[in-house]
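2024-03-11 09:14:02 INFO worker-7 job=invfold-0412 stage=load source=structure_tokens
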């Protein structure tokens, strides 16, 4: 039986080497980023996710409890940086609004980030979130194609998402977006729309992360594999674990070699545009030329080099 989240005790990290979890800020100093959940569960029904099924119905802590806990954590662990670890921070407009009001009223003095979807936000609330200490939002956008978003069962519209990205950037909040490639029945057109999303909105996007779709056990895709006409295949996710991927049962159009080649080219364009217009938009010759051309040909290589050489950036 799930307990009432309001009765949850304040997190206790005593005995952990928190220094190992420190992140870099832009000025090069290290700071401990304290994880904290303001709510549990998720109201979404995304086809690739199992979180709503695993964690039960959505419920949130009161603004009073959150502020009390955060104040204790800030003082105890000597850090003003909080990472709100909700799977979807803005399930409820009222929840975010009341929390922002409380953080401002009590002058808590923290800097926080959260994972959000492209809904239940507007200009007034984003301004208030910034005033309360929000410095970065991570947006679960996944694709620049509304067609694919519908297939994913995400209840967002890409036009609304881009509008909110623009507002957030204007009020001084940093934007990170999550994208996904390889979802069943993804087309090259869907991928091209995602590439254009990065190019056309580069002024409002500070960073992006692209993941390759993998089938989660118990997700909509896994449970409806017959209806989707796909076969689930086990794969080695690491030396110590296994995961799942899929393949089409028949050599349909989406599985033909020429279509697969076209899709791969479009996936490279998504990552290449991300490198050129977002991650490395401020670099100068000759690296800008390398990113411009090699980013479209060898995006995975550039990404691997970046992950090995670049420290984690907090904002």
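2024-03-11 09:14:09 INFO worker-7 stage=emit residues=315
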């Amino acid at each position: 039986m799930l307990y009432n989240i309001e009765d949850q005790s304040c997190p206790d990290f005593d005995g952990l080497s928190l220094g190992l979890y420190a992140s870099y800020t832009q000025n090069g100093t290290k700071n401990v980023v304290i994880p904290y959940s303001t709510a549990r569960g998720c109201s979404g029904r995304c086809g690739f996710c199992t979180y709503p099924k695993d964690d039960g119905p959505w419920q949130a802590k009161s603004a009073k409890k959150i502020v009390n806990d955060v104040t204790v954590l800030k003082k105890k662990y000597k850090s003003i940086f909080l990472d709100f670890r909700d799977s979807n921070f803005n399930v409820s407009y009222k929840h975010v609004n009341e929390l922002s009001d409380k953080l401002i009223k009590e002058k808590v003095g923290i800097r926080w980030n959260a994972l959000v979807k492209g809904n239940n936000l507007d200009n007034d609330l984003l301004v208030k979130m910034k005033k309360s200490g929000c410095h970065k939002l991570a947006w679960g956008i996944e694709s620049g194609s509304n067609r694919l978003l519908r297939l994913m069962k995400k209840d967002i519209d890409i036009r609304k998402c881009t509008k909110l990205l623009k507002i957030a950037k204007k009020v001084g909040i940093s934007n990170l977006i999550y994208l996904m490639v390889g979802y069943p029945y993804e087309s090259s057109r869907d991928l091209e729309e995602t590439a254009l999303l990065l190019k056309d909105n580069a002024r409002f996007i500070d960073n992006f992360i692209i993941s390759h779709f993998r089938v989660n056990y118990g997700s909509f895709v896994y449970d409806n594999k017959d209806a989707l006409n796909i076969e689930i295949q086990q794969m080695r996710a690491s030396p110590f674990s296994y995961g799942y991927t899929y393949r089409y049962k028949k050599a349909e159009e989406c599985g033909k070699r020429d279509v697969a080649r076209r899709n791969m080219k479009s996936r490279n364009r998504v990552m290449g545009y991300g490198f050129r217009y977002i991650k490395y938009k401020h670099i100068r010759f000759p690296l800008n030329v390398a990113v411009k051309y090699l980013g479209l040909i060898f995006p995975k290589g550039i990404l691997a080099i970046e992950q090995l050489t670049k420290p984690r950036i907090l904002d």
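2024-03-11 09:14:09 INFO worker-7 stage=report msg="The longest helix spans residues 257-279."
2024-03-11 09:14:10 INFO worker-7 job finished
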